[in-house]
Design brief:
With 287 residues, this protein is of the alpha/beta class. It has helices spanning 63-71, 112-123, 129-136, 152-164, 182-197, 232-239, 244-254, and strands at residues 25-34, 37-47, 52-56, 77-83, 86-87, 97-100, 170-174, 201-206, 217-222, 225-230.
Length: 287
């Protein structure tokens, strides 16, 4: 009787590795001088793609200067800074980056709809994108009003809409919730996370520390130096603090260097008044 050879077991297929998206922003030894005075002191960090990264710190600490460097409108920048794989300020980034300045940067003598139509035409957005954006920022009822007749919070939302209308890959928002009521702040943060869930990257600055818990990752800046680069949970665990404001004080007063999952470097220093850059033009995005 002939023996039947045993069938060798078929190995289970090995799943393909899940690709890790490249960081949306990579800064190495980023420094800025304004008026002969250093504003940013060689900060190093990355901004993860498809997430909400908060840039927090006291007013005058260099947050606006850092954001201006990212969108390519800040002069006297040294070090390395890449955005979406390109050097910051590259012409190809204009349609891929939306920039919302602290002051509403739209045309007051145009209606809300005409403002968005103007920016949509500049960016080559499809016609239906204007109505989609109006709905996203809850401005359908104000669409045909002149922008200069709106409240401050409504004008801030028009600026945000102008940055959103081109469907940018990266949104850079400079204190977008300042002066807004709690309900609108909540709704905007919900929108920010919905955009991140859809694959957008958001870099959002604030001096309101309680907004830190709404971020996926945090960069804490003081006097132009990075004092923390971590998740909110990681920051609390590392400092033993009850909230991010206390954690910031622990790091600032204890002289701790930035660290955590981002691995950035930096040191603390006394809070100083870093100069705020003027924004460029009336557009809601980087032009």
């Amino acid at each position: 009787m002939s023996s039947v050879p045993a069938t060798a077991p078929v190995p289970a297929p090995v799943p393909a590795p899940v690709p890790v998206p490249a960081p949306a922003v990579v800064a190495r030894d980023l420094a800025v001088r304004r008026g002969g005075r250093p504003v940013l002191h060689g900060v190093t960090f990355t901004v993860a793609a498809g997430a909400v990264t908060g840039l927090l710190g006291p007013s005058g600490g260099g947050k606006t200067t850092l954001l201006r460097a990212v969108v390519g409108v800040q002069a006297d920048v040294t070090g390395s800074l890449t955005v979406l794989g390109l050097p910051a300020g590259s012409p190809a980034l204009r349609a891929r980056t939306g920039y919302v300045t602290q002051s509403p940067s739209v045309y007051g003598d145009l209606t809300v709809r005409r403002n968005l139509r103007y920016f949509a035409d500049l960016l080559g957005a499809p016609p239906g994108r204007v109505d989609e954006t109006l709905a996203a920022v809850d401005l359908q009822g104000e669409a045909d009003r002149r922008t200069d007749a709106l409240s401050g919070g409504q004008r801030a939302r028009v600026s945000l809409a102008a940055a959103l209308v081109g469907s940018p890959d990266l949104l850079v928002l400079d204190e977008p919730t300042v002066g807004l009521d709690p309900v609108l702040r909540r709704d905007l943060w919900a929108l920010f996370h919905a955009l991140a869930d859809a694959g957008r990257t958001l870099l959002v600055s604030s001096h309101v520390m309680d907004e830190a818990r709404r971020c996926d990752h945090l960069l804490l800046l003081r006097d132009g130096r990075l004092v923390a680069d971590d998740t909110p949970a990681g920051l609390l665990a590392r400092t033993g603090a009850a909230d991010v404001e206390d954690a910031f004080l622990v790091l600032a007063e204890g002289g701790g260097a930035a660290g955590g999952t981002g691995g950035a470097t930096g040191a603390t220093g006394a809070v100083g008044a870093s100069g705020r850059g003027r924004h460029r033009g009336p557009a809601g995005g980087s032009r």
